[in-house]
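Readers of this paper often ask what the protein records in our data store actually look like. Below, we set out a record of this kind in full and without editing:
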Amino acid sequence: MALTSSSKGLLQRRIVELAVCIQCVPRPPPTDLQWGPQDALSAAVLADGTVRLFDCRPRSPVSLFCSEPMGSVLMSLDWRSDTIVASGIDGQLFQWVVREGGGLHLGSSWAAHELEAWMVRLHPTSVGEAWSGSDDGSLKRWDLRSGPQETFCSRRHHEAGVVAIEFHPTDQHYMLTGSYDEQLRRWDLRQLSRPVWTSPKFGDGVWRLKWHPRHQGLLLVAGMRSGAHLVDVGSNEGADTFNLVGHYAKHADMPPKVGDATQLVYGADWCHDPDIADGNMAATVSFYDCSMHVWAADNTCLT
């Protein structure tokens, strides 16, 4: 079952646009960014194959460290404790140790996938466990403490590339994946023979997933050409539900920079300040016009 245009039209009325900010992205362009586990440090991977650490306390972020180029465009990263991992468009995965003072030591790199490695994530509670997704439709689990070593691989459950992986904020056995096949899948990490459920098609690839910081079960989805979506997947006890409760489509109204291309919503996240827009403010970014839209979910999305 696909999401219909009429249902999306109704859901757009449950979104309040707050601002649109258009800003040119400096080169080499960043492809992913992650806040560090402490202080005001962030890490970004760039199209030139480097990882950069930033101190974001000043008004303008200061670059603390830049790694050597990895010889591949880096597409995603994750940072937990003193470990940073990144995925490369050549199928490689990389692991760094963050040194005191902001330096990086490359611990390992390995050929993880035959095609582009779009996504890599560290498990939030299982130390040394990483998950990656590739353009060949494979989803893999890695033990970084021994090798690294592949400990699980699924090649038959996604119909296209795996581009998003997100863990539940409180349930260590709950994982979501997004794919170019336009679907979202929920996994129980104790039973990996098949997904718990597979969503209807969103209309384009499911590129990024972000949980609401306070409303359990509410998910923000960056859906490329289909815009941004709000999905209610229920609490831990009722996590086998799937309800589309909001849709932000204003990126499609922006003129593209390249030919007749449609804007691609690649980035999405919630504001964690509960005092702004009742704690429901989100930001989404699109590719061709380098724009960021700031908007808020109406309270009817959250009931």
Remarks:
- The chain is about 5% helix and 45% strand.
- The helical segments are 5-12.
